From TrEMBL:
Coiled coil: none annotated. This is SRPBCC family protein. Transmembrane segments: none annotated. Gene3D superfamilies: 3.30.530.20. InterPro entries: Polyketide_cyclase/dehydratase (IPR019587), START-like_dom_sf (IPR023393). PANTHER family: BLL4707 PROTEIN, SRPBCC FAMILY PROTEIN. Signal peptide: none annotated.
Length: 141
């Protein structure tokens, strides 16, 4: 099993950040690489499309609005992994209520690719995603 985690400080309160990213269908609101998200199974499954038209299907496995996190698995995707579990979490920053830390982490078993290659792939996805989130929060009043 391999894993990776990326964290980034955000220029907004934890509640504001969570309002933007806490919905399981909210990726198109802040992640340019996912312009489309539709729900199935009462909102427990999201079907995503990237700009190239690739489909990614993910299942929500844990959600905690109070603790500001959700975890999900990949059901279908063009990624070389199995047993993928990822968590997106918003942390408060002690001493500054107008800054939040967002952590995006995942663990998975590479399939058809080496550990280092797959760890680098998801590290880049998480980093680019959090960079995009930071830009959205900077633009919003």
């Amino acid at each position: 099993m391999a894993s990776t985690s990326v964290s980034r400080l955000m220029p907004a309160s934890p509640d504001r950040v969570w309002r933007l990213i806490g919905g399981f269908g909210s990726l198109p609101d802040w992640l340019p690489s996912i312009p489309e998200s539709t729900f199935a199974e009462g909102g427990r499954v999201r079907r995503l499309k990237n700009p190239d038209g690739d489909v990614i299907v993910e299942r929500l496995v844990n959600f905690d609005d109070t603790e500001r996190f959700y975890s999900y698995t990949i059901v279908q995707a063009p990624f070389p992994v199995v047993d993928y579990l990822s968590t997106l979490r918003v942390h408060a920053v002690t001493g500054d209520g107008e800054v939040a830390e967002v952590q995006w982490s995942g663990r998975f078993v590479p399939a058809g690719a080496g550990d280092d290659e797959v760890v680098a792939l998801f590290t880049d996805i998480y980093r680019e995603g959090l960079d995009a989130l930071h830009e959205v929060l900077e633009r919003q009043p």
